[in-house]
Amino acid sequence: MAEEPKPTLIRERQDVCELDRARLALLNPAIIEQKKEERTFDEGAKPFLEMTMREGIETVWDRFEMQQPPCKYCSSGLSCSRCAMGPCRIIPPQRIRGVCGAEADLIVARNLLDTIATGAAAHSDHGREIVLTLYGIGKGTVTDYVIADREKFLRLAAEFGIDTGKKDDKAIASELGHAMLGEFGTVKDHLQIAARAPKATQEIWENAGITPRGIDREVVEAMHRVQMGVAADYVNTLVHGLRTSLSDGWGGSSLATEISDVLFGTPKPNESMVNLGVVRKDSVNISLHGHNPMLSEMVLKAAKDPEILALVKKVGAAGINLVGLCCTGNELLMRKGIPNAGNHFNQELVITTGALEAMVVDYQCIFPSLPRTASCYHTHVISTSPKSRIPGSYYFGFEPETAYATAKAIVKMAVENFPNRIPERVFIPVEPVKVMTGFSVEAIRGALGGSFKPLIDQIASGNIRGAVGIVGCNNPKVKHDYGHVLLSKELIKRDILCVETGCAAIASGKAGLLQPSAASQAGPGLRAVCESLGIPPVLHMGSCVDNARILHLAAELGNALNVGIHRLPLAGAAPEWYSQKAVSIGAYFVASGVYTVLGVMPKITGSPPVVSLLTEGLKGAVNASFAVEPDPLKAADLITAHIERKRAELGI
User: Fold this and answer.
1) Residue 366: other Cβ atoms inside 10 A
2) Are both 596 and 513 inside the same structural domain?
3) Are residues 406 and 452 both part of a single domain?
């Protein structure tokens, strides 16, 4: 029998709780009330925020305040630390060039390309891990996972030119995994899934010189370009940024989405619950946080293990309650109906329920300070990715080959922590909200009777004016969830369908917009469509890599009408983005022909020519552009005007 995996403690966690209390507990009740209302739009989070300020438990909002005022040169993109001759700052009129001679436009463009490349790499490395698991199934080295959606598996094999013939699933998995791993290199010179884009869109890429050639190839070239002494022209630099982003959206993210569906099941509409109220007082609570569904799927299985269930009974708990956070939570929510405790800015607050036995994390959007928060409670923070070892956490090295054994050890550790809970510290004053999720492209097609023609007909008739993909994160520069929820509410009032992913989707869920009953808040046309189908006016399409689903849906509509994506009445929005991944997402939306409105200004204002290129100049190259509008109502006006222009161009 294999030895049970044991955790490694990544440095002793420091108990800083009392220090934080001494600093933060100076706030008086009036200031606490004011800050609570200023910080979040999430009603379920407000009692927890009030409690953290009253008790002096540090959160992301406190750290944001500590960083004010920000450096104006960094904020505008005019600082550069690329080489040891710097750091440099452009401060006209005295300093108009860095030591190497780079002027403001180039410095801003290089910084933006670096950001896009980082985001594309994050999504695409995630995709590689999923594909490697499929390949391991084929080679027989991975045995804990199975093919959950065989129909999609075979469809992808055909798309990649694999003759399935009389081959068994292992042989097909080996060939498909190998073919998909080839997408990361430089040999093929094209990406297979990018062929799904309408021909007119592909022609735009060719003419602009941005057709993605390989996932790693574009990221590596981007990093080469930002090396001092390489990129010298800001336009040429940013054009490669578009190509790099396309290698994410039509490459790494698409592979992550498609093979996650193959391994764990393609999402179908299901009902569940969201917000911090999903934590249960009588159960062992384990939160699953991050972006990779590989471990969380095994934790779900391990939570049903008879040995674990016997241990649960022994420690006196009613059961095991798994709750999701961020995009790992979205993966579980849309496929398994596992309740979701919240989005990015709820991750510290879920610990403050006092009822969380373990927070299990993989990678991306995870605060390194989580063990500091946990030091005020009994919660174990358990890190699992070699890319993301967190000081103060217990580390279980996760590998697909030993997935179940590792998951079982993690769940066991959480159950054994249940007796350490401090009853008087348990605080769960809110009730969860119902949601309907799981709207994959396949599920939407199925709901429409197997064809997208009914959706096209509803758009043509004007019942649905158009559709908007609302994506992205939380950012303390924007009141938590405010941008997402107000923009969604305003758009559906105007008969514009919203499709959402990631933190944006969970924000809408907490606000009640992911329920069929929310159709009552929509305009008359959209309301009638939603009520006839029994769906919400805001559709949950998954995690942030699942923005690829939005691309694939747009491609389906474009192909059905034989037009490029840029001709469709579609738009994108990222009201509260913060992450490099969001910059890559926005760039591949625009490069694919989707007008995209940001709620937070990127670090580009130090170069008016770069701003002009992104908001105007790209229209001549890719027939789409960025806009920046922090006011959700004004953003809705911009999006509505764009959609109506596209409708007029199509003659509808």
Assistant:
1) 24
2) yes
3) no
Instruction: Give me the sign of the Cα torsion angle 296, 298, 299, 304.
Output: positive
Residue 140 domain flag: yes
Helix axes 253-264, 293-302, angle to 10 degrees: 20
Give yes or no: residues 639 and 511 share one domain.
Answer: yes
8 Å CB contact between 181 and 188: no
CA 414 to chain centre: 26
Residue closest to 444 by CA, chosen among 330, 533, 321: 533
d(CA 649, CA 652): 8
Supply φ then ψ for residue 343, to 5 degrees.
-100, -160
In this structure, the answer to whether residues 451 and 561 fall within a common structural domain is: yes
Q: Which of 28, 20, 259 is nearest to 137 (CA)?
A: 259
Tokens, residue 28? 């008086």
pLDDT in tens, 427-450: 999 999 999 999 999 999 999 999
> Is 83 a member of any domain?
no
Give, as one character, the DSSP assignment of residue 575: T
Helix (H, G, I), strand (E, B) or coil at 130: helix
Region 636-644 average pLDDT: 98
Residues 6 or more apart whose CB falls under 8 angstroms from that of 112 comprise 77, 238, 241, 583, 602, 603, 604, 610
Judgement on whether residues 592 and 447 belong to the same structural domain of the protein: yes
* Both structure tokens of 153: 């598996």
Q: Is residue 70 part of a domain?
A: no
CATH at residue 539: 3.40.50.2030
Report which of 417, 358, 398, 393 is spatially closest to residue 9, judged by C-alpha positions. Answer: 393
pLDDT value at residue 28 = 85
Strand pairing partners for 116?
Answer: none
Main-chain phi, psi angles of 288, to 5 degrees? -115, 115
pLDDT in tens, 374-416: 999 999 999 999 999 999 999 999 999 999 999 999 999 999 9
What is the C-alpha separation between 290 and 296, in angstroms, rounded?
A: 10
Give pLDDT tens digits for 544-571: 999 999 999 999 999 999 999 999 999 9
Please give the average per-residue pLDDT across 260-264, as a whole number.
98
Contact present, 320 and 313 (Cβ < 8 Å): no
Whether residue 341 sits in one domain with residue 246 = no
Q: Which residues contact 75 (CB under 8 A, 6 or more apart)?
A: 603, 605
